[in-house]
């Protein structure tokens, strides 16, 4: 059943994504006229996101996931971090049509200005006029304390026109996080063609995109694995992948490969700075390039691979789905399935260590130690989501290895598992 306030008339629903916290969902109801209680008896209004006495605004990037929309979202995100918005709190906002709908949500922002300064509103209008005249949502309290959303179309030369004034009504959190519907379109690519077409759209904007496509197109399609075993080692940063893959390589006389492959590493930084859609398409293509390397190498020796498709998918899912682990797509969801056109390994081992041990190893490696508590908390949720996504991967799934013991013990366990699954080497 649709949640309260989100009726079959496909009213827009909105979900506000606080860092690490629950989603706040609301919808809008009716327009103009006197205040009434559209949600029936006493549905609580999502007032919590409007700072009193401050003001609150929203904006969304329309259109399905596409390179121009993703880049527009990124430009807005960067602009909202600066200048007149410095004192505002900017939260992620998703606009979705109905719970359970297959369409990707629109992505946007909720901007809370605790001072309620007119300067913020002027600056937002100016920003949106310069970016394709996106409408601006302005939230205001009515006489009886109810909440209204005014949607303004911004016209050239300072004009604006009221498109709609509607009551804001709380909605239940949908059964699936609204970003889940967008994963297959915007972050987790299940075919070479899907990832390729995103990078192809970038060639006029990102010169490196052409070089990546050239490499991909040189690889034989649908590469087949050779007779030697192919073992992938996965895990969060600092769980010991580099250590384990090196030792396995030495012990088995294997070839060591990694994803993304060395041939695309010069462009990695460029793509890491791009929005999710483009960044994830780049890593997806990296996997197809590695696949052709695996195919070739596995005709001659065992192959051990440091990260592969499971990393690409798990990180993409965990970054796109805000908040708690329970927000992840349910087990057996299509995003956890291996792409049909990508070479499959024989065995995938997932290294896990306790959060404490992982921090010790990161510190041992000399990385930054002090982080703000909220960041740590958000970070810990993120890690949990990556790890849980890894565990939900299927066909092939990941076999978990406790990587907390000594290097020697971990290697023994790993070699034992390889022997068990891949026979004598
Ligand atoms: N089993 C282990 N016990 C203790 N320290 C380890 C173990 N395995 C790796 N380390 C250390 O932890 C750090 C992270 O390991 P590394 O192999 O670089 O992880 P990753 O490649 O997954 O980021 C390194 O300093 C490494 O020497
Ligand atoms: N096959 C891969 C490998 C990395 N990645 C991305 O790269 C990041 C980790 O790469 P890394 O090289 O820092 O990891 P380590 O192996 O150094 O721990 C992850 O955040 C993923 O977003 C990916 O998407 N797909």
UniProtKB/TrEMBL annotation:
Q: Which GO terms describe its biological process?
A: dTDP biosynthetic process; dTTP biosynthetic process; dUDP biosynthetic process
Gene3D superfamilies reported for this sequence: P-loop containing nucleotide triphosphate hydrolases
Which keywords has UniProt assigned to this entry?
ATP-binding, Coiled coil, Kinase, Mitochondrion, Nucleotide-binding, Pyrimidine biosynthesis, Signal, Transferase, Transit peptide
Q: Where in the cell is it found?
A: Mitochondrion
- The UniProt entry lists the main location of this chain as mitochondrion
According to its UniProt record, which reaction does this protein catalyse?
CMP + ATP = CDP + ADP; dCMP + ATP = dCDP + ADP
Q: Name one GO cellular component term.
A: mitochondrion
**Record's protein name:** UMP-CMP kinase 2, mitochondrial
| Lineage per the UniProt record | Eukaryota, Metazoa, Chordata, Craniata, Vertebrata
